[in-house]
Amino acid sequence: MEDITKPNNSQNTVTKTNDISIKQKISELIEEIKIFLLSGEAQRRFLSLFIFFIILFAMLIMSILGYCLFYFLYIPQIAHSLPVYFQYYDDIDQPIAEVDLSNNSWRQNGILTGGQYYNVLIELNVPDSQHNYDLGNFMINLSFKNALNETVAYSSRPCIVKYKSFVQKNIETIVKTVPLFFDVAQESQTIHLPLFESFMEDEEVATTKAIVTLSNKSLHLNNAKLNFEARFHGLRYYMYHWKLLTAVLLISVLMFWEIVITFLLWRSILRLLRDAAEKIDKKLQ
What domain range includes position 21? Predict the structure, then answer.
């Protein structure tokens, strides 16, 4: 029995000795880390790293703000909808309306952006009446004038009130009985007529007004609107339709150039300081 217990005791002693040596090594490593962290060199490194991340974060914020400012200035409003008020007089056969397109702002003189393409269409809301059906085709004329009162574009398009049969009209009336009773719906239809495709606004002289003319004043009309829809091309298209992707790419480009410019300025400042120090040393010698 004594021969068996002696090896076990020796093994336990070796294990305890190994545990003590491992604990001593860990404690020594912790002490070395503490000494390094409390040393002046470590503090200088941490301070340099902290300043580096602060500068990097400031560059990121500046890049984001720069991109937002660029987006605000470069991307125009994609759509405009302006009311059209036709003037009816006894001595005028063709009702006419003048729509103000001027915009007194620091960005531009008109609501349209120079160099930008627009689709222009008119929206007519007309009653579903037999009178309008009997009118047949009529013409809608549109002309744009600039600040010099010059005609910059003209368009004339035919239009017609969509015919509805007696059966179709009655079925629609039955379906919309409740909305019609509460004056939520109307017995009317809306006509969308394109007048310009890819009209480009002049970059030098802004378009200030649009003149709309109806060829037949017998048309019964509830209301009318002139709509502008911007057609983006190139960078504007990607910035508007792919906002996240273009934002990441352009912000990265801005950050890259900020880092390059900052690095070059820092090198130049260090060179100037070094040259100034050398001149002072030469004067003192």
Answer: 2-71+242-277
Reported pTM: 0.72
CA 154 to chain centre: 31
Neighbours of 212 (CB within 10 A): 20
User: 198 near 119, Cβ under 8 Å?
Assistant: yes
In 3D space, the residue among 138, 278, 154, 105 whose CA is nearest the CA of residue 221 turns out to be: 138
Closest CA to 159 of 241, 214, 99: 214
Where are the alpha helices (H) located in 75-213, listed in sequence order? Answer: 130-135, 166-175, 177-181
- pLDDT tens readout for residues 230-277: 999 889 999 999 999 999 999 999 999 998 998 888 888 888 878 777
Strands 79-84 and 96-100, bridge-based pairing: unpaired
Would you state the structure tokens that stand for residue 104, as one six-digit string? Answer: 């007194």
Task: Render pLDDT for 146-179 as a digit per residue (tens, 0 to 9).
Answer: 988 899 999 999 999 988 877 877 787 788 777 7
Q: Helices marked H in the chain — which ranges? A: 2-38, 40-74, 130-135, 166-175, 177-181, 235-241, 243-284
DSSP state of 150: -
Is 121 part of any domain?
A: yes
Cβ 196 vs Cβ 116: under 8 Å: no
Do both 222 and 261 map to the same domain? no
